[in-house]
Amino acid sequence: MDEMVGRVLGTVDATPLEFWVGVAEGEYLELDDVVALERVLPTGEVVKLFGTVSQVRARYEGARFDSDVFLIEDGVLPAEVIEAAQVTVTRVEPEIFVPPRPGHPVRRARGDERDQALFFDRMERKFPVGSTRNGEPLYANFEFLNGQRGAHVSISGVSGVATKTSYATFLLHSLFNSGVLGAAVVNTKALIFNVKGEDLLHIDRPNIHLDDDQRLRYAVLGLPARPFESVGLYAPPRPGSQSGVADVSSRSDITSFFWTLEEFCQEDLMLFLFADAEDERAQYTMVVFNVMAQLRKAEGVDGGAVRIEGETARTFRDLVDLIIGKVQEDDSRHDWAGPNIGLGTVNAFVRRLQGAVRHVDRLIRGDIPNPDRHRIETSGHQVTVVDLHNLNDRAKRFVVGVTVRRTFDEKEKAGQSDELLFLVLDELNKYAPREGASPIKEVLLDVAERGRSLGIILIGAQQTASEVERRIIANSSIRVVGRLDSAEAAREEYGFLPAAQRKRATILKPGTMLLAQPELPVPLVLEFPFPAWATRASEAAADLAGGGPNDPFDDL
């Protein structure tokens, strides 16, 4: 056992859940230190109390006025410096909740005692989520992530400072390489939506800035310091491209994705073009559903084009012109727009449909041969990255809504399975805002509430958890916080953080996170290593596969 670092104070109430420790001469305690002590009951039974340091203070004993500090330092007044640490109890063994008695010696918990204090010894399936500042591994219970006892992760923090996306990819790296997935790792997948630059389009390449110290940090966590090895990369086609070249500048070995006009008609994808929360309350949504019913009758022709009532459409603009003609013509308005629908409602629908053309026309088409080669598939790789950064917000919502719904439907047909799909989505507040309703929000709610039973695990990231649908946050078993704005930190969504950690969240440095999990009564303060995979083109090692920047003359 370690030597004593202090004794339980007798001037402050000690309770079974919290007490103060006077730090011994020549010793110190800092925030997040883990401590332990024993109390012997009158029956002879020994109760062990474990806790973490949640606050520390130093003061002069003997000083009465603020100005006394100068007299004490000059040797005029007698006084001594005393340091004290507030300890939040994390575990009591056995569960006899008695307070520690004043004067009881307190020691640092190390090794097995530290694992006991943080419940690591009770986690049958644990995986590393980071390390302490002195390099000791920290773990989370996989049973609260895989759906067995809970699921989903919520990551919040200020954009550009909280390193939310970096931490989300680190969690995936840990899950895939720690052994916690067992044999299921072969068929476990991840689907990541990339919304910021081309950052995540290089995670299959080593990071040239990874140094030996960072490699050692991976080794301490029992993880390899290497990039993701099985990655599928998708990006939207370049605007105006007749060959479907991906709209990416930093590498050329990327598959462009789009949906055919036939899929658009047969799978009711129009719903996701009207995915704004305000659209759900508008009267023209009745026209949307009536038009979708008519589009289901479309006949598919070569290359994903469609024929509707004798007219063929090969581009999304062709299809929109055809729909507008049908809903505005007197002869067909009753069937296409619906009975008793006024012209004003029809025109409102037409304006919004026309407004979508320039944003999604490259994503919905029937003019490229072999369209199946441009379908987003998660089965062929362990990690699939779908790039959205060059798309307008309306197009982003369409891609996210359609992709997540199709993925959810496929998992629902397959039934419950140990083969998980991790869905990583940044800017969650855009797709599942707290107020209003939309098709995308309903899909994400399905994922949050029913996904755990199907093996779909949401890793959602957002700047402000207070602006995300409450039920999604409430269904997240693991909550992670990076650097927070002070006003956001005061919101009720961060009630799981002790008062001291709320303040601390406003000054966290990049790479430091607070992680709360159900088994542990206090959040862990952790650091995670620098990514071993490139997070931007400038960090990528030379590509041995030959994938370089796109040729600007590809379409000429």
List the helices and strands and how they pair.
Elements: E1 4-8, E2 18-23, E3 34-40, E4 46-61, H1 68-73, E5 80-93, E6 105-108, H2 112-117, E7 126-131, E8 137-141, E9 153-156, H3 164-177, E10 189-194, H4 212-220, E11 231-235, E12 255-256, E13 259-260, H5 261-266, H6 285-295, E14 299-300, E15 306-308, E16 311-313, H7 316-328, H8 330-336, H9 343-360, E17 364-365, E18 383-387, H10 393-414, E19 421-425, H11 428-431, H12 439-454, E20 456-462, H13 470-474, E21 478-481, H14 486-489, H15 499-505, E22 512-516, E23 524-527
Helix pairs in contact: 7-8, 7-9, 10-12
Total strand count, please?
A: 23
Architecture of the largest domain in CATH?
Answer: 3-Layer(aba) Sandwich
Strand content: 15-25%
Form type: elongated
CATH topology of the largest domain: Rossmann fold
Query: CA-to-CA gap between the ends?
Result: 74 Å
| Count of folded domains | 3
Count of DSSP H/I helices: 15
Biggest sheet overview: 10 strands, mixed
Gyration radius (Cα, Å) is: 29 Å
